[in-house]
Amino acid sequence: MYVAYHDNEWGVPVTDDVRLFEKICLEGFQAGLSWLTILRKRDAFREAFAAFDFKRVANFKPHHVDKLMLNAGIVRHRGKIESTINNANRAIELSNEFGSLSNYVWRFAPPHSAAKRSRADVAATSAESSAMSKDLKRRGWSFVGPTTCYAFMQSMGLVNDHLQGCHRYTA
User: Fold this and answer.
1) What is the number of structural domains in the chain?
2) Catalytic residues
3) CA-to-CA distance for 105 and 55, rounded, in angstroms?
4) pTM surpassing 0.85?
5) Which domain covers residue 99, as residue numbers?
């Protein structure tokens, strides 16, 4: 599952707002857990959170949170569930301000990622992920620290952290 995710998704540039919202939420849920745990639960997350349609998630009410807390298919962390609903409302605001969530997110893509020769060359944060985190927090988002934002940027193709020699690496 992890290899298929790497080979087919990780690092491929994404501009679809719903996919971007899904990924930043799942990265927030992943904090403190393995990514494989989240991958295994991704379908349940999609079902639980209206396929991450942030316009629908923004309308979730306290009874939705209570129901989600009973859903063993997802990570049952009240703060992360409530954060997803809050962030859906914030995503609508960004979409309204910038024309799309994608337009907002891609402003933080660095002009070029340096080639990575080994895993030791891959950072956990960057100036851009720190700037994204700071700006999102200023706008009321939660569970979007610099490390979470960098993982999001890697997975959505804003940075190229495939190692040289990886079949997905592109210069």
Assistant:
1) 1
2) 5, 27, 35
3) 17
4) yes
5) 13-155
Task: Return the CATH number at 50.
Answer: 1.10.340.30
Residue 169 maps to a domain:
no
25 marked ligand binding residue: no
Residues 93, 21: contact at Cβ < 8 Å? no
Chain segment 15-44, per-residue pLDDT in tens: 999 999 999 999 999 999 999 999 999 999
Question: Is 127 inside a domain boundary?
Answer: yes
pLDDT tens profile 71-99: 999 999 999 999 999 999 999 999 999 99
Q: Is residue 65 part of a domain?
A: yes
Q: Is residue 79 part of a domain?
A: yes
Looking at residue 171, what is its pLDDT?
56
Structure tokens at 14: 């994404």
Backbone angles phi, psi at 80, to 5 degrees: -75, -35
